[in-house]
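Field reference: sequence -> structure
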Amino acid sequence: MAKKEKVIDLKAKAEKVTDEELKKLQDIVSGINSLQTEIGRLEAQKHVQLHKLAVVRDQGTLLQTELEKAYGTADVNINDGSISYKDAE
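Structure field:
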């Protein structure tokens, strides 16, 4: 035979949380909101940086095309500017 569980009416116990519990709850919700705002700000900065990266990559592609027109297909050492031509196969 199954035991009957005693049902507790929680509504009858209290109508409000304690001031300390309310403060803790408010602090947690405030912390969550603050962090979500910061994440949004960081995502916006990330978007701007990704756009800047795309622009710089486009500039690199344009320069690569200019260098190929001027020097043909070759490797350029970015430290000293020397050009290494690949042997024709």
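Note: The chain has a mean pLDDT of 91.
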